[in-house]
Write a structure and sequence with these properties.
Length: about 425
Amino acid sequence: MSKSSLTVELLHPPHPESIEDRLDAPLGLLYIAANLRKHGHEVRINDLSGIPQSEWEIGMADIYGTTMYAPTMAISEQIARMCKEINPASKIVAGGAHPTAIPGEISSAFDIIGVGEGEEIMVDIARDYPDNKRVYRKPLEEDLDIYPNPAYDLIDPLSYKRTLGGELALTTLTSRGCPYQCSFCGLADHHKTIKRRSPENVAEEIEFLKERYSITKFIFQDDTFTINKKRLGSMLDLIRPLGIGFKAHGRSGNDTAGDYLRLRDAGCETIAWGIESGSQKMLDLMNKQTTVRKNEEVIQWAKDAGLISRAFFVLGFPGEDPQTIEETQRFIERTDPDQYFVSNFVPYPGTDVWNNPEKYGITRIHTDFEKYYQINGNGFGSRNIETENLSGDEFGEMEREFRSWINQRRQRGKLQEYEGKLPGRKRLSEEVEEI
């Protein structure tokens, strides 16, 4: 028989391979915690990122919910076993992108698997406690305004390292989901439907966080902040008077030059895109549904509007070869984005690449998930696939040459602190040009 009120501890695992393990607050857990409290449960958030294991402290709880990513699978299992030792009668829940993609392959160290976003799922798990089933699936309501704002009061927001323009920034979401189906996205099937908060709800949260924590910089984590033009205009009208600075993600083929002027006038400082490659062949293989030319346009429009242009690239997607790498280099030279970040391709479970490797000329996918990192503290990413056209050694040499080349390029605007930690980039981070 379930209790009316339970104690729930939500844990975020450390990621020792990451460049900066304590970059952003665990926003997903903050939302889950807020909704559990709304339903009368006592909730703690235990973010172990950046904390040595010798200093971990886990409390007594009825339910433990642990986030799991592919590279943190082993350490998440270790945390689960520690929780069970503390309270053998407890229920241990695995949630996040990795369990959502392959729920049938999650360790028995976890009693319960949550598939999808966790706000409704964790409430159902608490309702059924202790007579829980193995797998829970339940979508969010279409109207995101019914959910409480993230429970930032359960953590120390000032302990994280994300900055914008050199100042501490908090992350927030105005929508969930993405209409595009990129081949490397592990949550494409779960994020097909876009759910939105009202512009008024977004503005109220920003105003509250600004007053509560004296924060004036924000990172909008939406996959595409600019997707709906009418809603974008309404949000910007409400954000403008708040006097904040923010960063958002745009989308080539969807955005216009006018969008970037409106963003700048509302306080936007940086606009970022998943440019991914300068090769049309690679964009098509990735199912990016855009063109090299459109990618060139958005970078120029951002510069014309006075925004910092930040381009993300993916290296080593199946089909990559010396010619496509050369095309990406030429693209970067032509467009000269103010900032860039290069990640290695990782075949995350749930992606189209993972589900259909033969379609991409993949002969083998390695499943040592601890090596599923896009870039680590040494400045290089992992290689977890073997393809018909490129050996691992050949790709390794391509990656070394490309990263050596791009690390010599100057960047403009204030960078994240962690970017200065990358080998080969420390000197350049000290020479950053101000816009």
